[in-house]
C-alpha cells in the first residue's frame, strides 16, 4: 500500500472510531468521511462497506481492552481486577458507542470472549490473595461491566448528569461489594 493510501486508511479508522464512539450504529459512512477530511470515494476504496469499517474499529477497541487486561494481570493480583474495571470504565465513558451490545453481531466475538476469559483470570487472582470474596463469580464481573455501561449511557442521555462521572461512584460501590469480607453482599435465599 502506498504511503498516502496507508495514511488515508489510518485517518479513516481514527475518524470512524471517534464517530462510532459518539453516535454508535446511527453514524453513517458519510459522517466518517467528513470527520476524516476525505471524500466518500476514498472511504469506499479502503472499506467495501460500513460493516468492514465497523469490524476494523471494534477489533482495535477490543484489542486495546485485551491489552489492558493483560497489563493488569501482570501487576499485583490484589489490584488486577480493580485496575481492569477502572480501565473499562474510562474506555466506555470515552467511547460508549463502541461497546459490544451496541453492535450485536458485528462485535468481534473472539476478542470479546478472550476478554471475558482474562477478566475471569483477574477475578481468580484477586480471590487467591483474598482481595475479592469467594462469593463473586465471573458473571458478577460481567454484570458489573453492564452496570457501568448503563450508568454511562444514562449520564450521556441526561443533561443533569453530563460530566458528573457517576460511573466512578457506582464502580466504587461495586468494588466494595466485591470485597473479601462480603459485608456489602446480601445473600438471598428462596
UniProtKB/TrEMBL annotation:
State the InterPro entries in the record.
Answer: DNA-bd_HTH_TetR-type_CS, Homeodomain-like_sf, HTH-type_TetR-like_transc_reg, HTH_TetR, Tet_transcr_reg_TetR-rel_C_sf
PROSITE patterns to which the protein is assigned, alphabetical: HTH_TETR_1, HTH_TETR_2
Which terms are listed as keywords in the entry?
Answer: DNA-binding, Transcription, Transcription regulation
Q: Which GO terms describe its molecular function?
A: DNA-binding transcription factor activity; transcription cis-regulatory region binding
Binding region for DNA: 28-47
Pfam short name (any one): TetR_N
According to UniProt, the name of this protein is TetR/AcrR family transcriptional regulator
Origin: domain of life: Bacteria
HTH tetR-type domain location: 6-65
Query: Which Gene3D superfamilies does the record associate with it?
Result: Tetracycline Repressor, domain 2 (1.10.357.10)
Amino acid at each position: 500500500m502506498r504511503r498516502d493510501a496507508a495514511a488515508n486508511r489510518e485517518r479513516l479508522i481514527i475518524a470512524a472510531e471517534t464517530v462510532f464512539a459518539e453516535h454508535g450504529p446511527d453514524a453513517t459512512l458519510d459522517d466518517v468521511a467528513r470527520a476524516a477530511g476525505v471524500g466518500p470515494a476514498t472511504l469506499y476504496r479502503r472499506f467495501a462497506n460500513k460493516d468492514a469499517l465497523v469490524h476494523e474499529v471494534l477489533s482495535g477497541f477490543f484489542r486495546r481492552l485485551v491489552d489492558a487486561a493483560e497489563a493488569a494481570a501482570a501487576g499485583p493480583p490484589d489490584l488486577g481486577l480493580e485496575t481492569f474495571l477502572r480501565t473499562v470504565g474510562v474506555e466506555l465513558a470515552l467511547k460508549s458507542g463502541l461497546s459490544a451490545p451496541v453492535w450485536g453481531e458485528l462485535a468481534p466475538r473472539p476478542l470479546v470472549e478472550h476478554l471475558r476469559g482474562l477478566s475471569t483470570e483477574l477475578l481468580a487472582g484477586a480471590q487467591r490473595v483474598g482481595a475479592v470474596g469467594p462469593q463473586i463469580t465471573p458473571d458478577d464481573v460481567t454484570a458489573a461491566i453492564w452496570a457501568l455501561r448503563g450508568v454511562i449511557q444514562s449520564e450521556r442521555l441526561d443533561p443533569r448528569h453530563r460530566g458528573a462521572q457517576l460511573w466512578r461512584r457506582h464502580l466504587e460501590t461495586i468494588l466494595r461489594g466485591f470485597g473479601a469480607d462480603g459485608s456489602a453482599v446480601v445473600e438471598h435465599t428462596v
